[in-house]
Amino acid sequence: ESDLALDEITGKVQESLGLEKRHKFWESQPVGQFKDLGDTSLPEGPIEAPTPLSEVKQEPYNLPTMYEWITCDIDSDEMCTEVYNLLANNYVEDDENMFRFNYSKEFLRWALRPPGYFKSWHIGVRVKSSKKLVAFITGVPARIRVRDEIVTMAEVNFLCVHKKLRSKRLAPVMIKEVTRRVHLENIWQAAYTAGIIIPTPITSCQYWHRSLNPKKLIEVGFSRLGPRMTMSRTIKLYKLPESTVTPGFRKMGLHDVPAVTHILRNYLSRFVVAPDFSEHDVEHWLLPTEGVIDSYVAESSKTHEITDFCSFYTLPSSILGNKNHSTLKAAYSYYNVCTKTPLLQLMNDALIVAKQKEFDVFNALDVMHNDTFLKELKFGPGDGSLHYYLYNYRIRHTLKPSELGLVLL
Ligand SMILES: CNCCCN(C)c1ncc(F)c(N2CC(C(=O)NCc3cnc4ccccn34)C2)n1
Question: What does the buried/exposed string (b/e) look like for 341-366 if buried means 16 or more CB atoms within 10 Å of the residue's CB?
Fold first, then answer.
């Protein structure tokens, strides 16, 4: 009894030490600081000016002796498999350690090779002796508009340290190394998200979940049977029509790229922070790829114009320790635009095709105009928040999620 209590206390002390070190690190970085919140005298925009490329540190940061940097060539099947396995066993879990993200190899190749990507920004750490990959962090270039300024940034993602190497202070040096390699390409800003609070969120979003397979979600502990609800009543509550209702609703094709780019750019222009997508970007990020990204358009039968668009990406989670199910099949709402069809109807059609494709749950953040359909389409609030951050760029006021037009993977 008392040993458990002692472990609990040690754990809490270690965790709070980690928190302090974490804030110490971020207080040394050019990011908005908590103390500056509300100080409207500080200008919006870059916090530090770019340094001349000759003054950027030319050699990699030092790692602890037995580790070395490796640039991960994810075109190589062997390397991509190593990255996949590291993430599948050591990446983000929920607070109760019941689920862990299981990004697929095809998803990683899609996420990490957008137009203009740099192989040097796919950074691994391996053990010198065994050559085992034990940590990973990535960046991809993106043009992000912040109010009226278009800024080329790095979208930093997939920071992962092997479970056995936690609290060895590897994450700060990996963040500094990806920052150094981004600077070498003359890029001085970054965007990233986290499920934790560090200095300083530009906005904090809520996840919402729409059950598609409530029986499985309850069996694996993702959701619980509601009060005064039976299983059959719950299945009936989430039942969806067999087929979509929007006229001209079909999968997006290559020939739709110009029209989708046009309505998407117009739609995203109304948010404070949003990607500045070119046709080339739309072709990469939004053309359907089996098991990775699904996207649909509504084409008017009269004029053949593309009036609406919806998309969701595939991010399964491993179910840790359930004897009947090993994988939770989750769809994540990506970018959706309505110019004719009501958003409610378009998103219900997205739920219908996700159910047809045997997803168990459809997740959405309360960003953009998503709050207009979440409750009505029977989404329930999730337990996780997703905080958005900008590196070396100050935003004068914390944004509402509905002012954010950026979805990271
Ligand atoms: C932009 N990069 C985000 C990647 C990390 N993303 C997607 C993420 N970051 C924080 C979260 F809070 C979160 N949630 C999705 C919601 C959810 O489904 N929670 C239950 C659950 C099922 N599987 C997992 C795996 C990990 C964590 C929670 N899980 C909560 N998602």
Answer: bebebbbbbbbbbbbeeebbbbbbbb
